[in-house]
Amino acid sequence: MPCLYICGECGAEHEIKPKEPVKCKDCTYRIMYKKRTDKSIYIYLIILIHHFSNMI
Ligand SMILES: [Zn+2]
């Protein structure tokens, strides 16, 4: 069952199936938030974004 993800850049909602790459279909941004998320996962994603921004 696909999950709804919210784009971290443009806020668009997309269904992403388990084998699909996590990527916004509107703006191709690669950080997506799970819609049914809890705070610990949200914080984990923030840490991931921090790592990515250090790498770029
Ligand atoms: Zn987007």
UniProtKB/TrEMBL annotation:
Matching Pfam families: Zn_ribbon_RPAB4
SUPFAM superfamilies the record matches: RNA polymerase subunits
Keyword terms, alphabetized: Metal-binding, Nucleus, Zinc
UniProt keyword Metal-binding present: yes
Family: Belongs to the archaeal Rpo12/eukaryotic RPC10 RNA polymerase subunit family.
GO cellular component, one term: RNA polymerase III complex
GO molecular function terms noted in the UniProt entry: DNA binding; DNA-directed RNA polymerase activity; zinc ion binding
Zinc recorded as keyword: yes
Matches recorded under InterPro entries: RNAP_P/RPABC4, RPABC4, RPABC4/Spt4
Main location as per UniProt: nucleus
Protein name per its UniProtKB record: Uncharacterized protein
Annotated compartments: Nucleus
GO biological process: DNA-templated transcription
